[in-house]
């Protein structure tokens, strides 16, 4: 870490405390406790302004100003839903757009975090999938979504706490396990005691089913797993989710069975209900068979229609009948409340519209 030309500044938010200590000590000749101070400013207070870090020397602050980036994302648009959901659109330094969705509830404040701009998985029903993969987000950009929304919520709700968010779900744009290294670094930072200190119980990573990476997630992290299953036969699933041609349902459920579960924990299976495609009684019955022996709960997601993709929403009565069949088969299932539909922020609708097309905040 010696030479860092100004056009390649150090991305401070993406450094673990260990890495930050290395940088400050080796490259800047500082004492290790300075790194801890800086880390707390960045990750506990969410501070982006070096001038406010008054317990750091002026010389250190000047050095950081010339060599480091503390704010890789800027909020570019906020859209508020009538149900309290807020979609934050962020702009990266290289002008890419990504979205994070804030979902407040009485007992928790959850952020749906993005891990990529676009997505390579090409699920046929998903809007983000139509973008293709533009690029991975850096660890700093993943962490910056959390800090950015913490600041915005604290400001908007006039809170005294600097970290109102309690839960994180990696269910935004992109496939988290397709950007595993950056995801893992971001989790290390977000879970660190000296930093944001999120509990593993309050973090869920959702995947389309990249089997080898599910294994790594289980071995190298302690967060909760969600799997987007979305079908009950391989023929069906391969149509909807091309990833199934590489790792089919049997391989995926094997990985689920091997996933280390802490006591009492279950794997969440997401199942998007598509009218006339995967919502028949036979699908529900097959699902019961497939999930036998796996500590599972099923989130049934009413499809959010995306114009042009050719899928329709399952009606409420059908969704409930589907859930009842799962329940009779002793599979815990919930029909997920749809949030933020009015601002196209619900599952599978994240596809950052280019500036001019974007609807204005409500
Ligand atoms: N790529 C990861 C993380 C994204 S999670 C994954 O797929 O798990 C987004 C969830 O929304 C997935 O379960 C996906 O199946 C679901 N989804 C995608 N498009 C949707 C739509 N239009 N309506 C409802 N759910 C959708």
Q: Based on Cα principal axes, name the global outline.
A: elongated
- Beta-strand portion reads 15-25%
Q: What's the main sheet like? A: 10 strands, mixed
Strands ordered across the widest β-sheet: 3-4-5-6-9-10-11-12-13-14
The distinct ligands, each listed once, are: S-adenosyl-L-homocysteine
Order of helices and strands: EHHHEEEEEEEHEHEHEHHEHEHE
Helix content: 25-40%
Tell me the distance between the termini.
46 Å
Low-pLDDT regions: 1-5, 354-362
Give the C-alpha Rg.
Answer: 21 Å
- Please work out how many helical segments DSSP would assign: 10
Structural class by helix and strand composition: alpha/beta
The number of distinct β-strands equals: 14
User: How confident is the prediction overall: mean pLDDT?
Assistant: 92
Walk me through the topology.
Layout: E1 10-11, H1 17-27, H2 32-43, H3 58-67, E2 68-69, E3 73-80, E4 86-92, E5 97-105, E6 108-112, E7 116-118, E8 133-136, H4 139-156, E9 167-170, H5 180-191, E10 203-207, H6 211-220, E11 224-228, H7 234-240, H8 249-258, E12 267-273, H9 281-291, E13 296-302, H10 316-328, E14 332-335
Parallel strand pairs: 1-2, 6-9, 9-10, 10-11, 11-12, 12-13, 13-14
Antiparallel strand pairs: 3-4, 4-5, 5-6, 7-8
Helix pairs in contact: 1-2, 4-5, 6-8, 9-10
The structure holds S-adenosyl-L-homocysteine.
Residues 121, 125-126, 171, 175, 206-208, 228, 230, 270, 272, 301, 303-304, 306, 347-349 line the site of S-adenosyl-L-homocysteine.
């Amino acid at each position: 870490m010696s030479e860092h030309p100004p056009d390649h500044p150090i991305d401070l938010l993406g450094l673990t405390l260990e890495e930050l200590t290395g940088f400050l000590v080796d490259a800047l000749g500082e004492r290790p406790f300075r790194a801890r101070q800086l880390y707390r400013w960045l990750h506990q207070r969410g501070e982006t302004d070096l001038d406010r870090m008054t317990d750091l020397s002026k010389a250190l602050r000047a050095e950081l100003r010339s060599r480091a980036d503390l704010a890789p994302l800027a909020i570019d648009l906020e859209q508020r839903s009538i149900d309290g959901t807020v979609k934050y659109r962020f702009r990266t330094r290289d002008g890419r757009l990504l979205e994070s969705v804030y979902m407040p509830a009485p007992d928790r404040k959850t952020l749906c975090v993005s891990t990529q701009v676009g997505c390579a998985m090409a699920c046929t029903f998903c809007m983000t999938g139509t973008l293709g993969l533009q690029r991975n987000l850096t660890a700093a950009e993943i962490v910056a979504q959390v800090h950015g929304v913490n600041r915005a919520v604290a400001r908007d709700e006039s809170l005294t706490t600097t970290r109102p968010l309690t839960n994180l779900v990696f269910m935004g744009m992109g496939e988290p396990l397709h950007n595993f290294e950056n995801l893992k670094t971001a989790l290390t930072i977000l879970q660190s005691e000296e930093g944001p200190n999120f509990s593993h119980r309050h973090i869920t990573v959702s995947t389309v089913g990249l089997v080898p990476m599910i294994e790594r997630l289980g071995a190298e992290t302690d967060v909760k797993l969600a799997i987007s299953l979305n079908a009950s036969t391989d023929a069906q699933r391969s149509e909807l989710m091309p990833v199934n041609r590489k790792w089919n349902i049997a391989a995926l459920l094997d990985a689920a069975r091997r996933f280390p579960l802490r006591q009492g924990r279950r794997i969440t299976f997401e199942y998007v209900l598509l009218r006339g495609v995967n919502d028949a009684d036979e699908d529900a019955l097959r699902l019961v068979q497939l999930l036998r022996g796996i500590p599972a709960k099923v989130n049934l997601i009413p499809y959010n229609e995306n114009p042009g993709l050719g899928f329709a929403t399952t009606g409420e009565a059908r969704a409930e009948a589907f859930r009842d069949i799962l329940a009779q088969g002793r599979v815990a299932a919930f029909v997920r409340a749809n949030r933020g539909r009015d601002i196209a922020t619900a599952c599978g609708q994240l596809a950052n519209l280019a500036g001019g097309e974007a609807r204005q905040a409500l």
